[in-house]
Amino acid sequence: MGDHADVSKHIKTYMMVFAALFVGTVLTVAASQVQVSTPAHITIALAIAVVKASLVAAIFMHLKWEKSFSIWIALLFCAIFFCVLMLLPVLTVQDMNRIGVEHGIWG
User: Fold this and answer.
1) pLDDT per residue over 37-73, tens digit each?
2) Which residue from 8, 43, 52, 88 could staple onto 24, CB 3.0 to 4.6 Å apart?
3) Contacts for 36 with CB less than 8 Å, ≥ 6 apart
4) 104 in helix, strand or coil?
5) What is the C-alpha separation between 46 and 41, in angstroms, rounded?
6) Are the beta carbons of 28 and 49 closer than 8 angstroms?
7) Could you tell me the pTM of the whole model?
8) 76 phi and psi, to 5 degrees?
């Protein structure tokens, strides 16, 4: 276990990240009140979420100080897997729209 001096030298960094996460949350709420298209809302919210998640991963999960290359490979694999999983519903809806248009159901 780390001693008190080890933790206390990171307190300022933790407080700055807390403030940045708070500002990010306020920005997310403020962005939801702006009248823009739905894709723009999603893009803005995801951009803010990526910044906040990066701060949490880098500082609170101590990835900023990680020296091992294997952890970065595992993280990259997880990110690619996540993107593939997010892409599946989009492809399914596009395929359903294509089939519906071909058969005269809609469109």
Assistant:
1) 988 888 999 999 999 999 998 888 888 877 888 888 8
2) 52
3) 44
4) coil
5) 8
6) yes
7) 0.65
8) -65, -45
